Amino acid sequence: MPHKERKTRKKRASRTHGYGVTGQHRAGGQRGGRGKTGGHKHGWTYTVKYEPNRFGKHGFKPPLRREVKAINVGELDQQISQFIADEKAEKTRQGIEVDLDKLGYDKLLGRGQVTKAVVIHVSSHSESAARKIEKAGGKILKPTQ
What we know:
Largest sheet: 4 strands, mixed
Shape: rod-shaped
Order of helices and strands: HHEHEEEEEHE
Number of helices: 4
Structural class: alpha/beta
Distance between the termini: 83 Å
Strand content: 15-25%
Helix content: 10-25%
Number of domains: 2
Number of strands: 7
């Protein structure tokens, strides 16, 4: 509410009220723009101090994405004797039985060669891995079997 001690009362009839050329002290130009204008120019010091991550790319990670831990048949063939020694695999009549799900692997891939008959329990596998395992005299079983 206006009252008689306001500066405006004293400045009546002065046209610019002490702000120089007409139009100064009006609108957003006096404060360097409205809002966060000039953050890359005259407002850069503010940006550096209070919002250092305001500009630039910051990446995107799709939601519900899960890493798949996989092992190749060649690696498995090399490590099979170590698995038997550590009692993570056992010899049966059908061949060497390995549960990759219990070892923390999600998928079996087909890179490398297989020299031993191996019965593998794994939730997922590639076609080339299945071909190579069967060619060596083994088989792949799903965990439910």
